[in-house]
Amino acid sequence: MATSPTVQELLKRNNDIAATHKPQLLIPEMKPPNQLSPNMLIDCGCSYMKDPNVREALKERAPAEASKIDGMVFGAFDNLEQSVRDDLKIFKSSQFVREEMKKSVYGFVYDIQTGKLTGVA
Question: Once rounded to an integer, what is the mean pLDDT over residues 15-30?
């Protein structure tokens, strides 16, 4: 039975492949069933959404709910790597994630333009 590659091996393999990467419209998400990996995409549409902008748009649609909307947090982020670190912390501290899975949670930032995958610890 073949062994799973290490994170370092995956990053090296990605680095080699990224050298000839051509951006695709769709990126299939393939994850082994016993591993979790929060990922963020560089230039992801969500990276342009900021909480104040979302609140403003919602208040235009539902002005009567303005006070409720002002207190909402939508999870906007300015730093992709920190966002992945935050997600890792949530996974690793969750009572709903099996202990053996917590040991194999890795985070990555994926650059959709270059194909480069960067590990985040």
Answer: 65
